[in-house]
Amino acid sequence: MSSGSHSECQNCGASVYREHLDSGIARYEDGKLMCAHCVTEYERTHDGVDDPNDDSLAPIEFDTGDDELTVDMSSTRIHNTAADSLLGAQGVWDDSHFKRPLGPPTEGATRCRVFHSKLSEAALGFMNTTINEWLDQAPSINIKFATSTIGQFEGKQKEPNIILTMFY
Predict the structure, then answer these.
(1) 108-126 burial code (b ≥16 CB/10 A, e <16)
(2) 145-154 sheet: strands from edge to edge
């Protein structure tokens, strides 16, 4: 089944290269060497995705109750504090102007805090230290959940940063 630098898929006869096996896109299933396309088909048929009796992909229904959800989007509820508290204070974060108290651990998040860092080991270490010091200084903070993404930050140069939003 091997002809030098590649083998053949034992399902369809397509070429399977060592790189495909090393990266995991081609592999052995049930003792047969399969190309990427045959692996995908194998997974589709063996994972039950096309099974009409499979409830795992059924829509989820939410009970919204009789009350309609209303969101106050007036200008009194939306504030641009990023420019005032982050940029003007040179990175010093001040929670003293918030009126809503922190909720107990069983309630949803009441505030958020955004951290960002360049994608280098030293910068990520500094971000870790900053987050841990922030949490040490405010023992009443209980992180509810966090999200992260990679995005461009503009300064002297555009460079990718990790952006971490913590909801507490």
Answers:
(1) eeeeebebebbeeeeeeee
(2) 112-118, 158-167, 145-154
Answer whether residue 162 shows pLDDT above 90.
Answer: yes
Position 161 pLDDT exceeds 70: yes
**Who contacts 8 (Cβ-Cβ below 8 Å, separation ≥6)?**
1, 2, 14, 15, 16, 33
CA angle at 100 for the pair 163 and 62, rounded to the nearest 5°: 70
Q: How far apart are CA 81 and CA 149, in angstroms?
A: 21
DSSP 12: T
Q: What's this model's pTM, rounded to 2 decimal places?
A: 0.41
Measuring CA to CA, which residue among 50, 54, 20 is closest to residue 36?
20
Res. 71 pLDDT band, cuts 50 70 90: low
**DSSP states of 29-97 as a string?**
ETTEEE-HHHHHHHHHHHTTTT-TT--TTSPPP----SSPP----STTT---HIIIIIITTTT----TT
* Length, in residues, of the chain: 168
